[in-house]
Amino acid sequence: YPSELIRNFSIIAHIDHGKSTLADRLLELTGTIQKKESGTNKQVLDKLKVERERGITVKAQTASMIHSFNGQQHLLNLIDTPGHVDFAWEVARSLAACEGALLLVDSTQGVQAQTISVFHVARERGLKIIPVLNKIDMPASQPERIAAQMQSTFDINPEDILHISAKTGQGVESILEAIVKRIPPPSGHTKAPLKALLFDSLYDRYRGVISLINIQDGTLRKGDKIASCHTRKKYEVTELGIMHPEELPTTSLQSGQVGYIACNMKNSSEAHIGDTLHRVGEPVEPMEGFQPTKAMVYAGIFPIDSNDFLKLEESIKRLTLTDRSVTVTRESSSALGQGCRLGFLGTLHMDVFRQRLEDEYDANVIITAPTVPYKVIYKDRTVLVSNPTEFPEVTDSTSNVKEVQEPIVNASIIVPDDYLGEIMDLCFSHRADSLDHRYLDSGSGSTSSARAIVTCTLPLSEIVTGFFSELKSRSSGFASFDYEEGGYAKSNLAKMVFLLNSRPIDALALIVHRSAQQAIGRAWVKKLHSIIPRQMFEVPIQAAIGKKIIARETLSAMRADVTASLYGGDVTRKMKLLENQKASKRKMKRIGQVDLPQEAFYDILKSK
Ligand code: GDP
Ligand code: MG
């Protein structure tokens, strides 16, 4: 395919606006995949099991299709982007491989928080944007109103907007035509030295790392020797081809094409997203935009049965082969034994990983409360702390800590006018600053109220647990949320430790803002009190900051032996009880003379 017959595009949208459904329809319409019987609703591009279960796209998937237009065959390369705020960087890098994007908006919902953020990423990259209104088959569809919203928000001409139903297929043909007519072909040179952008990678058990690349210039053939600008490592291309939608080997890939390569790359950490590949001996200027993934949320992961650590670690290793954005280090805790400390892009990323891990490892795991990376500034150095156990005990004027800083995000929330007050309250209760709002439209009389966009800064730590679900419940599901990193800011933070019979439980330590220490201390102590089994003696449960006790509950002593009430009763039942006790003894953790089953930590940590 000469460049002028190639189009590289992506579909960008807020979650649930129909990206995967539209991608399926496009693949069907071009005969890339068979049309499925109606009723089945499993998107081809959402390959991972969790993605299907949750209906979200986690990993970008790419497919090429062939479309005849004006009697000429065109090669259309669809680069699917992940649909969640945690994966903003993956969206940006997928777009680097395109010349155009379909901006898909649900005509029953209108412009949402991620519609705005993905639009800006696409515009900054200079992509041709094709606006599309989806779900016009639904009775609640308001195409004129939403078109006006898109005009006022993005300065889009309503005449350029395509109206479709990805579900019924209505209008989808017009998208193929618009892709060919409106999106410019890639501008590379087939004869120039090879320059390829690595924008995603997969892991294959047999062939090792499979990289997805976009050839900017030159031609790549099987057997070619290539090198990475970033690592300087050299490889030989053993296989290459296009995604159609599964891997389809070809003899070469040339400028403008998107495809996959297998080379002798064994470790997925060698495939750096955003890296530039060139031919050995023909160095090129690397493309800009390379940015290593950065973990923003950390948590410890431990097996419920400490004997299972190696099995757990093995499962984690296997999963990180397919998801390089997770960082892993070993961690050991006196309460929970050997475990791993993992870094994630965000909380959804953490939830998805946890679910995949539980599927893979076939058991529940204990995950400690998530922590963001804090900056502890000493007189002579700055330390990044992402584990509460490493946080300095005291941060007052007597310590040598100058200040502590926490990561901040710039948040935007889109919400119907009726819920504006609720959402403002929610933001304030999460330490919002620079809170502001404006209107996206003025509503349409009695049927729907005006939409407001609220912007503010929030500490990242405030949104990692529960913020999203609180936002949804306080707006009856109508609010949408997006954020981007906003640097670091000084903050009044302290390490909170929980004591059992005066002994600290390391795995439960938290970093808290001073303004919330009472509430947090009390809530956790209460929870511990309700979960920890009573002992033969009285046990104080306390929350402490430094030497100061913030909250306390007392676990009263058990009155008598567990089996006492069974005397004279069923002997086999008594035997069984003793047997159970013995079995669980092996998994008991002893803290401050208190025996705690490891399962108790699962219960303590599983919900906030
Ligand atoms: P994504 O999160 O953007 O990938 O959205 P999906 O493609 O998974 O679609 C979200 C939901 O909207 C699914 O239940 C789809 O069946 C539904 N959906 C998508 N497009 C349409 C449409 O045109 N009409 C109707 N009625 N439903 C649609
Ligand atoms: Mg999807």
Question: How would you describe the overall organization of this protein?
Answer:
The chain has 608 residues and is an alpha+beta fold. Helices cover 25% and strands 34% of the residues. The protein contains 14 helices and 32 strands. The strands form seven sheets. The protein has a six-stranded mixed beta sheet with strand order 2-3-1-4-5-6, with helices on both faces. It has a six-stranded antiparallel beta barrel with strand order 7-8-14-11-10-15. β29 (539-545) and β30 (548-555) form a beta hairpin. α7 (309-322) crosses α8. It is globular and about 85 Å long. The two termini are 55 Å apart. Residues 55-60 have low confidence and may be disordered. Bound molecules: guanosine-5'-diphosphate and magnesium ion. Guanosine-5'-diphosphate (GDP) binds at residues 13, 15-21, 41, 55, 57, 83, 134-135, 137-138, 165-167. The site of magnesium ion has 6 residues, from α1. Residues 4-187 form the Tr-type G domain. It holds the Pfam family GTP_EFTU_D2. It catalyses: GTP + H2O = GDP + phosphate + H(+). It comes from Piloderma croceum (strain F 1598).
